[in-house]
Amino acid sequence: MAKSGRHFLQIPGPTNVPDRVLRALSKPTIDHRGPEFAALTREVLSGLKDVFQTSSPVIIYPGSGTGAWEASLVNTLSPGDKVLMFETGHFATLWKDIATRMGLQVDFVAGDWRHGVDPAVVYAKLADDRAQAIKAVCVVHNETSTGVASRIADIRRQIDAARHPALLLVDTISSLGSIEYRHDDWGVDVTVGCSQKGLMLPPGISFNAISEKALAASKSAKMPRAYWDWEPMLRDNKAGFFPYTPSTNILYGLREALAMIRDEGLDNIVARHQRFARATRAAVKAWGLDIIAQNPAEYSGVLTAVIMPEGRDADVFRQIVLERFDMSLGTGLGKLKGKIFRIGHLGDLNDLTLAGTLSGVEMGLKLADVPHKAGGVLAALESLAAESLAPVS
Ligand SMILES: Cc1ncc(COP(=O)(O)O)c(C=O)c1O
What is the pLDDT of residue 393? Predict the structure, then answer.
């Protein structure tokens, strides 16, 4: 069927790529060993530090987030090392699987997929570890499968309270550039990030932000590593180059996205996302539906995972929304398949994009005959109006 208007990509990543970024991506590819490229590398590496809120180096991999996960482990740890991980959802489970396959000994704290990492459990586990066998604590900041955000600053405080030297590794794949995050202030050792969410880029590049402590750990870490090795990256990046062929065109897009982030201001971006999240939750509440996240202190600013009423298949509903309104909503992942749908309110969107998204959901609920109350969109509009960020002059 012929379609008019734009597709609504309202999954929690990849997100809508702004026109400015799309245009930047379409520039001719240049010599990645030439002077123009070196200037581009230096510019984006420096701009990324502002987004991670760090003065330490950030590495850019041509690879998806999964690669940057692997990189964070193989650069800092040795085979057989013990690591502490938490079952907050599908992505935390995948990171755990990588750690296990790498030969690490994972203490995987069971979870119900409705809560983030409990800082008190971090304290208890580390205080118990008298031999200091745990070498790293790994946390997914924003669990994209559930819309639950763990409290990284509180977790850091508990690691410090336990006086434990474990490294803190944090996955910010769906929070970077959208939920408040401070690599340096929160004492994070490796932050794993990605292009296709808050940074408004296509998939294809991913990041490791590295603390001095992580860099020191990498000198004695024994895990085999080649492609993901920080050392040749850091060496070549100094001169503006990469040890292998970089994603030149995505770096053009990154330069443009960083300019957009600078223009809007990181604090404003975080506030915009929180405002959209509150409006979305107001809609869900008015529909009489529930969300996965149970602790308000852990509500995600970038996506809302909505529980389907018993006996209804969330994927059938999503299919109807796609066919009728040309809008993609996020599917339920892992054990949540068919049970939930996820509304992405992440990246390049404004009040009207959100209003359109929620209208599509409300019309879809009606078409799919899902038991719900009307008035969700109205509730969201009221929430947005009540929280207008700037007065109209
Ligand atoms: C929190 C989180 N971690 C890791 C990943 C894996 O990243 P990728 O699919 O780019 O390899 C994702 C992907 O959505 C994610 O949301």
Answer: 52
Q: Which atom of ligand 1 is nearest to the CA of 144?
A: 16
Cα–Cα distance measured from residue 330 to residue 341, given in angstroms and rounded to the nearest whole number:
6
Dihedral of CA 307/313/317/319: which sign?
positive
**Atom 7 of ligand 1, nearest CA residue:** 65
Q: Measure the CA–CA gap between 341 and 81, rounded to whole angstroms.
A: 37
Ligand 1 site: residues with CB under 6 angstroms?
13, 64-66, 91, 140, 144, 171, 173-174, 194, 203
User: To which residue do tokens 């699987």 refer?
Assistant: 97
Query: Residue 143 CA: which ligand 1 atom is closest?
Result: 1
Q: What gap in Å lies between CA 252 and CA 29, rounded to an integer?
A: 9
Query: Among 93, 140, 144, which is best to mutate for testing ligand 1, by the most ligand atoms less than 8 A from CB?
Result: 144
* 179 CA to centre of ligand 1 in angstroms: 16
Quickly state the pLDDT bin for 390 (edges 50, 70, 90).
low
pLDDT tens-place string over residues 9-28:
999 999 999 999 999 999 99
Share of the chain above pLDDT 90, in %: 97
Q: How far is CA 260 from each of CA 194, 199, 249, 253, rounded to the nearest angstrom?
A: 17, 9, 17, 11
pTM of the model: 0.98
Mean per-residue pLDDT over the chain, rounded: 97
- Does the pLDDT value for residue 181 go beyond 70? yes
For residue 388, what pLDDT is reported?
79
C-alpha 148 – ligand 1 centre gap (Å): 15
Instruction: Tell how far the Cα of 166 is from the centroid of ligand 1, in angstroms.
Output: 24
| Ligand 1 centroid, distance to 140 Cα (angstroms) | 10
- Is the separation of the CB atoms in 304 and 280 below 8 Å? yes
User: What is residue 341's three-state secondary structure?
Assistant: strand
Nearest atom in ligand 1 to the alpha carbon of residue 64 is 10
CA-nearest of 173, 199, 193, 183 to 255 is 199
Question: pLDDT for 254-270, tens place per residue?
Answer: 999 999 999 999 999 99
